[in-house]
Amino acid sequence: MTQALSPRFKNLLGLLILAVLLAVVLPLVLEPFRLNMVGKYLTYAFVAVGLVLCWGNAGILSLGQGVFFGLGGYAMAMYLKLQSSTPEATKIQSTPGIPDFMDWNQITQLPFFWVPFKSLPLSILAVVLVPSVFAFIISYAMFRRRVGGVYFAIITQALAAIMTILIVGQQGYTGGINGITDLRTLAGWDIRTDSAKTILYFVNVALLLGAIVLCQWVRGSKLGRILVAMRDKEDRVRFSGYDVASFKVFVFCLAAALAGVGGAMFTLQVGFMSPSFVGIVPSIEMVIYTAVGGRLSLLGAVYGTLLVNWAKTSFSESFPELWLFGLGALFIAVVLLFPNGLAGLYRSHVEPRIDALFGGKGRSGSRPAPAPAE
Amino acid sequence: MFMGYSLGELGSIFAMQAFAGLILFSVFVLMSLGLAIIFGQMGVINMAHGEFMILGAYMTYLTSQAFHAFAPGLYGIYFFVAMAVAFCASGALGMLVEWSMIRFLYKRPLDTLLATWGLSLIMQQAFRSIFGAREVGVELPDWMMGSLPITDTIEVQINGLFVMGLTTLIAIAVYLLMFRSRWGLQVRAVVLNRPMAGAVGIDTERVDRFTFGLGCGIAGIAGSAFTMIGSTGPTAGQLYIVDTFLVVVFGGAASLAGTIASAFTISQAQSTMEFFMSGSMAKVLTLLVVVCILMVRPEGLFVLKVRR
Question: Domain coordinates of chain B in residue numbers?
Answer without folding.
Answer: 8-296
